[in-house]
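Section 5.1 Outputs to date
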Amino acid sequence: MEEAIKLLIQTDAKMYEIGEKVGYNNVRQFVDAFKQIYSMSPMEYRKTFRED
């Protein structure tokens, strides 16, 4: 998930692209696993921690 965090903050990659890059075949599995660890969705994380 550390790589997913980097990709969320540093790129505009879509969720399915990030999920695939970190080893998930299904975007739903990636989002659910991310939520379980960080208590927010990947999009919420991106909006909260990304500096535009």
